[in-house]
UniProtKB/TrEMBL annotation, chains A, B:
GO MF: DNA binding
This protein's record includes keyword DNA-binding: yes
Gene3D superfamilies xrefs: 3.40.50.1360, Winged helix-like DNA-binding domain superfamily/Winged helix DNA-binding domain
Superkingdom: Bacteria
Entry keyword Oxidoreductase: no
Swiss-Prot/TrEMBL keywords: DNA-binding, Transcription, Transcription regulation
Ranges where the record places region Disordered: 1-22
Domain HTH deoR-type per the UniProt entry, residue ranges: 23-78
Protein name: DeoR/GlpR family DNA-binding transcription regulator
Pfam families the UniProt entry points to: DeoRC, HTH_DeoR
InterPro entries: Carb_Metab_HTH_regulators, DeoR-like_C, DeoR_HTH, NagB/RpiA_transferase-like, Tscrpt_reg_HTH_DeoR_CS, Tscrpt_reg_HTH_GntR, WH-like_DNA-bd_sf, WH_DNA-bd_sf
Organism: Shinella lacus
Amino acid sequence: MTQSEQKIATSPSSARERTRAPARARLARILERLNEGGSISVTDIAQEFGISDMTVRRDLAELERDGLLERVHGGAVGLKRGPLEVIDDAEPAFEARTRQNAERKARIAQAAARHVAGRKAIAFDLGTTVLAAANAIVEAGPDPQLRAFSNSLHVGMTMARAGIATYMSGGLIRAEEMSLTGKEAVDGFSRYYFDVVLLGASGMTAEGVFDYSPEEAAVKSVFLQRSAERVLLMDSSKFRRISTVLIATLSEISTLITDAPPPPDLATVLASAGVRVLVADPSHLPERSLE
Amino acid sequence: MTQSEQKIATSPSSARERTRAPARARLARILERLNEGGSISVTDIAQEFGISDMTVRRDLAELERDGLLERVHGGAVGLKRGPLEVIDDAEPAFEARTRQNAERKARIAQAAARHVAGRKAIAFDLGTTVLAAANAIVEAGPDPQLRAFSNSLHVGMTMARAGIATYMSGGLIRAEEMSLTGKEAVDGFSRYYFDVVLLGASGMTAEGVFDYSPEEAAVKSVFLQRSAERVLLMDSSKFRRISTVLIATLSEISTLITDAPPPPDLATVLASAGVRVLVADPSHLPERSLE
DNA sequence: ACAAAAATGTTTTATTATGTTCGAAACGGC
DNA sequence: GCCGTTTCGAACATAATAAAACATTTTTGT
């Protein structure tokens, strides 16, 4: 599953995650070749590394799940970028992240939109998954009484464009996320209460939920404190990954919406922390609960 | 030139054309050739890839089904127009206004960028002209010490994307302008002082400067109070026009940057109100002052 | 060192892509 | 209009690839 993505930032002390260097090197090399030629074939890769076709397919399947390539009969091709984009110069990093795991995020977003249907005051955190959820809510024909709150410029524009009353905090813009940070951002939300908050994050372990940016942690904290329900949107590639800053312990989360069941160890602690887990199924089943 | 040696993903090591590139890669290549030459023939493609004519036909049929080309006897030709890739879905009204008087606004924006070069704290009001000025400042290679302040989401994203420290107010989003309004917006700027504010407006008479939206007037008022220099950006089509709400009297404006000299009566009152008028000339004269 | 877990390899079976044949249709010259 | 030539498309045959199930090896944690 996630065997190759573990070794990001583990401290030498608590290195209880298994790491497999050879496989990782192979995956990196596969992506490299993909960027060189635009496409790769299964048998070529198998010959290059002296491994079986089956293993190559498994590698490709994993890379595809993480949204890094697209499998086709006989091999794989890179993700199609828009043909000759000259128009929009939206920050490339964000664009790229939007494409990553796009399908999973779409499923999560759909599930989230259904989950919060009917709520009147929704807070939107940062990240591409949350933005996808905002889009899904808009497309689902939102309640006209809905009021949205966010410190993400992307979310704000999305919701406002759809005619939804949208409140933003003030603050200093962090360009990477187009998010508002700092004391103003925290204060801006400190006078409201929300029915539900949709949170994004970059990692989760038994310890809790992690994110990259310390600047944004404070706002997330406010959202957590002031929301009746705290919904975390996170695709399964982030399970068992840690990151810079601990946002919340698991017990602070009401509901986790994801695209695949968490690994057994996480599932256990999630259950004991009272987190409701919704798995957004690829089939059109509305929601599958497994608490 | 690229028709003979175009193995798409052959391994550099041993495997020489032992395996074919995935079918999907072939489709991409076919489209590529179509865009180069305008038309392609079945037999040419078959030879290039070393596949049978029948397979080429199946490929072309698939591409035609996707609306990417038009099959003709013996091959295929490209479509007259690329299949409309509409990526940016910024609100049309704003888009349309951006195009209106685009050339005048560009000239004004250039002049404004030169005018505020070196200032450290710039406040940006709303409107397409001000946004154009923000873009011009970014493209001119802004001072890294510059701090920008705005209640316009468009301006905020533009500046932040360029790596400029950008502060936004909070507030309720007004979708038409993607602006932040209300008490939070006013309060958000009430603790700062600015070297200069770039103001937009929709009309001007001897009485003063007008704009459409009452919601935004309060923020403009704050900008005016707290800025050392108050620069109004307004194209000449707005002279002698009034609008919903009076933002400021002429004496509150330090500088007017426009694209053509104001009519005599306005020029007189502007002069007596102590407004410096800069006309951004279409020729490359930097600035022409006529106070 | 051991046992458990994960990764990889192997075999089998299904699926898909490609090649071939051949009659029908389209094209170009007369 | 006729004709010979080329191209097309349907049907079937074959090769290539994918997926599933199981066996084997490697790694990991105790």
